[in-house]
Amino acid sequence: MHFSWRDGVSDAAQADLDRILDAGLEVARKELDKSSEFDPFALFTDGDGGLLSVKQDMGAFGKHPDSVAIINDANAKLKKVSVSARCTALVVNTRLSAEKTDAIEVHLEHREGTALLVLLPYKRKLTGKVDFGDLKAFICMPEVWG
User: Fold this and answer.
1) Where are the beta strands (DSSP E) in 54-134?
2) SS3 for 84?
3) Domain coordinates of the chain in residue numbers?
C-alpha cells in the first residue's frame, strides 16, 4: 500500500503547501540562475492566503554570513508570525553528500500539522546552466508549530 503526505491533509492545506513550495522553488531557481548559491530565505502565507517573505537584515550577519545563523533567525521569525500564518517555508541551498550533488531544500509547515522536507537536486553544467532533478518529499518534525 502506498502512502502519500497528502493522505489526511485538507484540500486547503495541500493548496497552501503547493503554492508556497512553488514560490520558494521559483525564487531559488532565479537566484541560482544569477549566482552559484543563495542565502537561506523564508516565506509564509498570512491568514488571508497572501504570500509574504520574512524580512532579514543580512547586514547583521556580517560580511560572510553563516547559513546556520540565518536559518536560526528565519525560524525564530517564522515562529513569531505563526500566530497569524497558515503556512511557512524555509528555503536553503544544501549539499547532498551521498548523491554528490547540490539541492534546494525546502522545509514546509502548515498550521494544520503537516511538516515536510522537500529536496530538488541540481547540477550546474560547465556552461553555467543548471539541470534540476526530481522533487523528493519527506515527512518531518515540525519546528514552527512543533
Assistant:
1) 85-96, 101-110, 115-124, 130-132
2) coil
3) 11-139
